[in-house]
Amino acid sequence: MSITGDYEPSTSSWVADQVAEYEASGGTRANTLRDTGIPIIVVTMRGAKSGKVRKIGLMRVEHDGVYALVASKGGSPTHPAWYHNLLADPQIMIQDGPAPHDYVVREIDGDERSVWWERAAAVYPPYLDYAKKAGRLIPVLLAEPVGDEAS
């Protein structure tokens, strides 16, 4: 399913630089959140408004080949732009290592969200503080492998 088209790097230079270094190194460099040592993944999607290819680094919250994408925006009262991109087009690619793979995203709630929220907070405890200050329920989306990659 490859996502093709004009790539528009993040307006945040450190995000754009990290994505570029991660991809150029096959995931061997720039693969943690700054100096925390916490692993990240690179998510490729299509912009909801622009239609351009967008890429971001997110915390690596993985279980049995499925990834949680936590729309925390650092505890901001608004959802990150990428959340709206994924709702508009749930077909994405995730790079967790040397090569990207195809996934489809869906937002989760209820007990399923609770289980994944606990997994996310175990990986990145600041999510708990973000939830307190956000004034909103932080969305959790699951990225599940597509087709042959589902096994």
- The assigned structural class equals alpha+beta
CATH class: Mainly Beta
Distance between the termini: 17 Å
Strand content: 25-35%
Strand order, sheet with most strands: 2-1-5-6-7-4-3
* pLDDT < 50 runs, ≥5 residues: none
> Can you count the helices?
4
Nearest-integer average pLDDT: 94
Q: What do we call the CATH homologous superfamily?
A: Electron Transport, Fmn-binding Protein, Chain A
Number of strands: 7
CATH architecture label name: Roll
CATH topology: Pnp Oxidase, Chain A
Query: What portion of residues is helical?
Result: 25-40%
> If you compute it from the alpha carbons, what radius of gyration comes out, rounded to the nearest whole angstrom?
15 Å
Specify the biggest β-sheet.
Answer: 7 strands, antiparallel
Task: Estimate nothing, just give the exact number of structural domains.
Answer: 1
List the defining traits of the structure above.
151 residues; alpha+beta; Pnp Oxidase, Chain A; 7-stranded antiparallel beta sheet; 7 strands; 28% helix; 27% strand
